[in-house]
Amino acid sequence: xxILNRPDDMIRITTPELAEQYIAEQVKIIKEQVGDxxxxxxxxxxxxxxxxxxxxxxxxxxxxxxxxxxxGLLRKGEPEQVIKVFRDEMKxxxxxxxxxxxxxxxxxxxxxxxxxxxxxxxxxxxxFAEEARKLDGIVFLAQGxxxxxxxxxxxxxxxHHNAGGLPEDLKFELVExxxxxxKDEVRMxxxxxxxxxxxxxxxxxxxxxLGVRCPGAITRDRLEAVRESDxxxxxxxxxxxxxxxxxxxxxxxPDFKSTGVKDGKRTFDWPCIIRAINTTDVMEVTVEHLPAxxxxxxxxxxxxxxxxxxxxLYDFTPKPPATVEYE
Length: 327
Ligand code: XMP
Prior knowledge:
Elements (H helix, E strand, L loop, with lengths): L15 H19 L3 E5 L4 H14 L3 E7 L7 H12 L3 E6 L1 H8 L5 H22 L3 E5 L4 H8 L18 E3 L7 H10 L4 H4 L19 H20 L8 E5 L5 E5 L2 E15 L5 E3 L4 H14 L3 E6 L13
Helix pairs in contact: 1-2, 1-7, 2-7, 4-5, 9-10
The structure holds xanthosine-5'-monophosphate.
């Protein structure tokens, strides 16, 4: 079987049975490719890398080492979930690196969006490379490349974000067990592998994480306000049956303050902006119109529970003209 290209006649994986069949085939392929060698994986907790981890654990067990780098810009509960699912439940060989201080120190005072992205991306590779160098005998690097990544890089739409970036001394052979799958198929396979729904149906989350939702120079207190308000939004969406129905939803806390009043005293705090959008291709995006009662409830909860917020706004702007993220 050609493991690099999706066969033209490949049946779309739409049922648990087809997912099981794919898993069985891939386990065989991985075993043949890897033999008794060791494999390394950067496990972000996103759908693709999580499914790759679960497939590899099934195929080669502790020949796989996963590295989860917490850059301090993850959502509330994410690192804990990765540790619980992969280390505690799936018994994976998981190295957890809390690099929060390292990232936030480097980002301190940096307000330019592209510079922020470069720092986050560059530092991520450095932390991962440091961990890789500590390990002996790694031959393969596993990646969560999926078929749209290949199509988009072939079409010149975006550079294939995987595969690259690691320094010269770290050249590994690639293992890409979901390379020929579309996203919905990756989810099917993840579900069949027993990953929790919260992971399998996770909304898209950008690599630079909450960093792009804390516009301008990131400060720890404003970042915490983004993280806490995002957690409230996700909790309320789940309670109200909107999880998995709305394509992407999150909060942004911009770097300016306005006057408010609380308990008879003047406050001078940040606003929290809610964004909830739907799309099929992310080129054009429409805004989800939430029920008024839910908005009222969100306003009350965010103001009461998130320090530093005295105003909640809703972003009604489609894309174009606005992008999904704020920077
Ligand atoms: P924009 O803001 O460009 O977002 O309309 C479109 C989609 O891409 C995600 N996004 C990113 N994902 N790294 C990523 O991995 C990034 O730097 C990045 N910027 C935006 C965004 O969340 C949305 O789903």
